[in-house]
Amino acid sequence: xxxxxxxxxxxxxxxxxxxxxxxxxxxxxxxxxxxxxxxxxxxxxxxxxxxxxxxxxxxxxxxxxxxxxxxxxxxxxxxxxxxxxxxxxxxxxxxxxxxxxxxxxxxxxxxxxxxxxxxxxxxxxxxxxxxxxxxxxxxxxxxxxxxxxxxxxxxxxxxxxxxxxxxxxxxxxxxxx
Length: 177
Hints:
By secondary structure, this protein is mainly α.
């Protein structure tokens, strides 16, 4: 009789270990999807960071009376470049996007600048990057939702905190545009 009990306990133990391994591997896979999605955003953010100084340089000669707008863009870029963590990065990127939109709004007063080929190319490129960032942000948030949902669902929630899987933050935009 004890042999059957030991055998049954061994089977339960093996099934428990297998279930824990499946849960762990599933959470790891979802966490890696979040990291991949963030990496895709990061690439686009760096490309946008590279375009901002070019935009400021093209605008400098035309918008002499709007120098504070260009300085605001440069400051927002520096702030965004140094931001760490999703919440801080989201706030910094929102600030940078607003600063870039303010430059585009100021440009409306300067017909020569609006007609400048370099400016038009930069404007199109930055707008394209902004749209791609928005798409990737949506993908990132989908990955976070999948991870957090699994992490908070039974039976995963039993092991998630113990194994170090913390809730991930969404990339939220605080203001409507």
